Amino acid sequence: MSLNENSTYTLADGTDIRALPKVSLHDHLDGGLRPETVLELADGIGLELPADDPVALGAWFAEKSNSGSLVEYLKTFDITTAVMQTREGLTRVAREFVQDLGADGVVYGEIRWAPEQHLTRGLTLDETVEAVQEGLEQGIEDVRADGGRIRVGQLVSAMRHTDRSLEIAELAVRHRDRGAVGFDIAGPEAGFPPSNHKAAFDYLAAQFFPATVHAGEADGLESIRGALLDGRALRLGHGVRLAEDITIERQDDENTYVTLGTLSQWVKDREIALETSPTSNLQTGAIAAWGNDILDHPFDLLYQLGFRVTVNTDNRLMSGTTLTRELSILADAFSYDLTDLEIFQLNAAAGAFLPIEQREELAEIITAGFEGS
C-alpha cells in the first residue's frame, strides 16, 4: 500500500483532491520509497534499520526529517540510497514510485535523483540510468493497466558538494532520448554555489539541455542569483527565499503593498517556476525567517503577486506526504478553491521540461480534468 493511500483530502466544496489531474516537478526518487520496500531491500543486503515494521520505520523517517535543518534532513537518505545500489533495487523503487504517483492523480512527473550515489555495488552510471528507466516504464504500464494515465521523465542530478557534475551532465545528455528530460544539482546548498559547476552548466547550455537548480532553500538570494546566472536555471528548486527580495511596505484590511527587488522582479517577469514543497520547507527551516507554521510560508504572498508557483512533495517518505496532501494543506491554510489548485497545475505544466506542443497537451488534460471534477 502506498503512502496515505487511504487518506481523504477534499476542498470546502467537497471536491476530492486526489482525483484531480496533477503535475509533480520536484520529487526525489530516493525520498519516495515505501517503508515496506526499504525493509525488504535492507533485509536482502543485511542492512540494519532503526525500526522493523513499516509504520514504525515511516515514523522514524518523519521524526528525523523534522529537524529544521537541511543538513540533518539529508542524513536520512543514507538509508534509502543504501538499498538502491543494485539494478533490481533501482528498478523496483522506480516502478513503485510511478505507481504511487499514479494513485495520487499525477499525470506528469519529473523524477530527480543522483546516479553518482548508486555505484557502490558495481553499477556504472549508464547502468543506473537504464535501471531507473526500466522501472519507470514498468510503472507507467502498471498505471495504464489500472485505467490511469501518466507520463514521467528523469531529472538527472549531480551532487553539488562533489566534482562529478560535468560527467553527470554528459550522462544526462547521453540519455536525453531515453528518459532524461533535465538536469539538476542537489545536496547541501550553502557553501556549494552553482559557480562551482560552471563546466557542467556551460556544456548543458551548448547542448540546449534544460536545468533546474536547488536554490533559495538552505541559502538566500545569492544562491538564487547563482542558479540563474551560473546555472542558467529555467526553474528554481524550492526558491522560497526569493521572498527575501520582497519588501512589505504596508498592509491594511484588504491589501498588502510591496516592493520587489531586481532579482524577484526578474524571476516574476520571466515566469521562472518556483518548485515549492510546503511540508519540506517547514522541516528544513527554509521558511524560518518568516515562522514555523504553514501560515507563515511565503507561498501565498508569491502566488498573490503573480509568481509562477508550483506545489511539490520533495520527499514523500521523509515528509510523510503526497501531492494531494500538500495541496490540501495549502487549501486549508489559505482558503484556496478549485480554481487556485488548477492554476498551480497549469503553472507546473508550463514549467515542465517538455516540448511546447506536449506542454499544451498537458494543460488541456489538466483543464479537462478540473472541469469534470
TrEMBL record:
GO cellular component terms given for this protein: cytosol
Statement: the UniProt record of this protein carries the keyword Hydrolase: yes
Signal sequence extent: none
Keyword Zinc (UniProt): yes
Source species, domain of life: Bacteria
GO biological process: adenosine catabolic process; hypoxanthine salvage; inosine biosynthetic process; nucleotide metabolic process
GO-annotated molecular function: adenosine deaminase activity; metal ion binding
Pfam family, one: A_deaminase
Cofactors demanded by this protein: Zn(2+)
Key words of the record: Hydrolase, Metal-binding, Nucleotide metabolism, Zinc
EC numbers on record: 3.5.4.4
Adenosine deaminase domain location: 21-366
Gene3D superfamilies xrefs: Metal-dependent hydrolases
Similarity field: Belongs to the metallo-dependent hydrolases superfamily. Adenosine and AMP deaminases family.
Protein name according to UniProt: adenosine deaminase
